Amino acid sequence: MQAVRLHGLGFENLKVEQIPVPVPTENQLLARVDAAGVCASNLKILAQGNEHTFINGMDLKKYPAQLGDEGCITIAAAGKNIRDRFPVGKRYCIQPAVDHPPINHRERFRNSAEGMQKVAVGYCLPGHFAQYILVTEETIAADCLLPIPDEGMSFFAAALCEPISCAISGQDRHIHIFQKTPGSPRESRLGLLPGGVTLIVGAGPMGRMHAEAALRFKPRCVIVIDIAEARLQWVRDVLSVRAKSVGVEMHALTNEAGLELMNGLSHGRGADDIIVAVGVRALQIQAQAWLARGGTLNLFGGLKKGEHIIDLDTLRVHYDDIRVVGSSGGSPADIAETLRMVAAGECDPGLHMTMVGSLDQVPRALEMVKNTETEGKIVLYPHIRPTALVSAKHWKLSDEQAFLKQHPPWKT
Length: 412
Known about the structure:
This protein has 12 helices and 21 strands. It is an alpha/beta fold. The protein folds into 2 domains: 2-165 and 330-406, Medium-chain alcohol dehydrogenases, catalytic domain (Quinone Oxidoreductase, Chain A, domain 1); 176-325, Rossmann fold. Strands 3, 5, 6, 9, 10, 19, 20 and 21 form an 8-stranded mixed sheet that branches. A 6-stranded parallel sheet has the order 15-14-13-16-17-18, with helices on both faces. Strands 2-1-4 form a 3-stranded antiparallel sheet, with no helix packed on it. Strand 14, helix 6 and strand 15 form a beta-alpha-beta unit. The longest helix has 17 residues, at 229-245.
């Protein structure tokens, strides 16, 4: 089969190659990869190699990592102990952050995996950048296989449920405290403040997903700020219509104009919820001052090691009751909720599409993500013949079906 594996640091060690199709043991699964999303997180493993947390010292030259943490699969074969649970032909999404210690090959990790409580698909476990993926015991034990509820769901939509679920997970970490009267007990609720002001910093792929996901909480308004006018125009053209349909104001403005509007709409209080969807240290510090009293700041965009320690305004924490939260991904429950939302029409992954192509385009796709040459998600189809990346904006199931008909499988 064709697979994309990392043999060491950097793009020069990223190889599209032919490897044997894996054979599952009695407690493992073999699945066909129907579609795979290209995630910016792959750039971290290219930059960090065996120092990445989920690689944990594993020698990539000896044990190359099969990348790809976003995708959807169809069961092709099941070990004898689990075939009743996972029938051939059943479709699933995988939660790649597997909350389980490594079971196999512990000797490959630093200190023989002592203290290692988590593994990850596309890192130390085989990922979706291949025609077939071996689903190992850890993924099954941690309930990280989520059945696709609608057999008619497109491959690309199911594949993009993982990144969308990260936005859902992040927003569910917001906390707001309520009291009916000054003498009533306090009550805490998770999520964005209904009827409040939400500010999203950054209109890149994840910022856009956050903007759409925010609509489920019905804030009074969502303000998206960015320095790139093209990104802001996309929000105005695409998400504003969706926001209006559920009774939410959506604004997309440059940083200065957006902050001015936020202060006006909040009567100088600031935003009730802020999501910093970019890894910019200065913005994570500044955003603390933009919060309303009792507001929540979500540091969603990860910072590089060495730049990750920031100043915290403890006076605001102490006197204004602000909260600072964050998340690095979702859980199986978040993907299950995203699948439900997509099946119900409450979320449209096609809005976030930008390009499609074949598996051999992984290096080019990652270069585009690194150089900010694409504003949305790239989805690859591992079983089609080599095909250059092409535009796929606002895709629907019919678009996918037509594309796959035009690009038949390269191997049966």
